[in-house]
Amino acid sequence: xxxxxxxxxxxxxxxxxxxxxxxxxxxxxxxxxxxxxxxxxxxxxxxxxxxxxxxxxxxxxxxxxxxxxxxxxxxxxxxxxxxxxxxxxxxxxxxxxxxxxxxxxxxxxxxxxxxxxxxxxxxxxxxxxxxxxxxxxxxxxxxxxxxxxxxxxxxxxxxxxxxxxxxxxxxxxxxxxxxxxxxxxxxxxxxxxxxxxxxxxxxxxxxxxxxxxxxxxxxxxxxxxxxxxxxxxxxxxxxxxxxxxxxxxxxxxxxxxxxxxxxxxxxxxxxxxxxxxxxxxxxxxxxxxxxxxxxxxxxxxxxxxxxxxxxxxxxxxxxxxxxxxxxxxxxxxxxxxxxxxxxxxxxxxxxxxxxxxxxxxxxxxxxxxxxxxxxxxxxxxxxxxx
Length: 386
Prior knowledge:
Helix content is 15%, strand content 26%. The N and C termini lie far apart (63 Å). The chain has helices spanning 53-60, 66-74, 144-152, 177-188, 268-276, 284-287, 381-385; strands at 12-13, 24-27, 30-33, 36-43, 78-80, 83-84, 96-103, 108-109, 114-118, 122-127, 158-159, 168-174, 193-201, 209-212, 215-218, 223-226, 242-250, 254-261, 354-360, 365-367. It contains seven helices and 20 strands. The chain has a domain at 193-292 and 349-374: 2-Layer Sandwich (Pseudouridine synthase), CATH 3.30.2350.10. Strands 9, 10, 11, 12, 13, 14, 17, 18, 19 and 20 form a ten-stranded mixed beta sheet that branches. Strands 1-4-7-5-6 form a five-stranded mixed beta sheet. It is globular, with a radius of gyration of 23 Å. By secondary structure, it is of the alpha+beta class. A hairpin with a 4-residue loop joins strand 19 and strand 20 (365-367). Belongs to the pseudouridine synthase RluA family. It catalyses: a uridine in RNA = a pseudouridine in RNA. InterPro entries: PsdUridine_synth_cat_dom_sf, PsdUridine_synth_RluA-like_CS, PsdUridine_synth_RluC/D, PsdUridine_synth_RsuA/RluA, RluA_PseudoU_synthase. Responsible for synthesis of pseudouridine from uracil.
């Protein structure tokens, strides 16, 4: 197998390299990851077979220019089955393609990941908004699992449940496979009860309100919709979804609502609140019909081999901006350098006003403190948690 490209000073990482505490840079309320060299691996799909290596990347990974891919092949940063190839090389189905590049992860909000309970086989934490739970898309180190490993030495961890990246609150991890399996069986048996709090627009009605409406999730848009009943006899397409809501308090403009999802569909609470006429007050995706599909955002999950570059061109390496950093080496081929954040990152992102407050099982219960936004006026903590 050919050696990875680069001089002796370059350390190429793979998923086997664990995150470390010095990988992170905190700046202006954001947690950044120091850019690092990484080997992305993929296998040639049937529809890719027969293309040249340069045509394949130019057609399928449009975030970078053709000139970049030509240069990457010539200098060995694009390899096939561990070997350097020429630019006219024809790829074959199932071959392994390695793309060696300088990886920039999107920043996340810099809130602490506080450990709530640390038991023999379970650890619970309070997840900050904007941090994904586990590696996905452009995120690998800037995740709850990565940060817990780097800063607290907690590994391995088995997530019992997941929260959307922009949602904050309680996360439960099993510390071993047996405890994880026990939790899984309880989930499948429907023995878990979940409680969230949300800050919504308007004066939410008093008394328990129930929304029983199927939910359709569009993965391409990253958005769910409530299914509208069709013609008589027509089979429903969405998944059955039920959520119970209870107003905690209101100031006449917003309300804090306790949300108890009985099912666990994607964006269920968010879309059910919108359907009820009381969307989460800072939920841009569901406040109106005007939204930007996830696939067009710079912080969206990138394809594995080549991170997105919305400008379809290399960055001017002579320019500097507020995110320019001198604490890492600039890579001459990197289309994200000299900045810490990848091209296209939306720096104005904020956490969603939706928070996981409590999970309860047959013989256990874990909870997480309410966030600051959940307190309206002089409403007391005791009243809100009762």
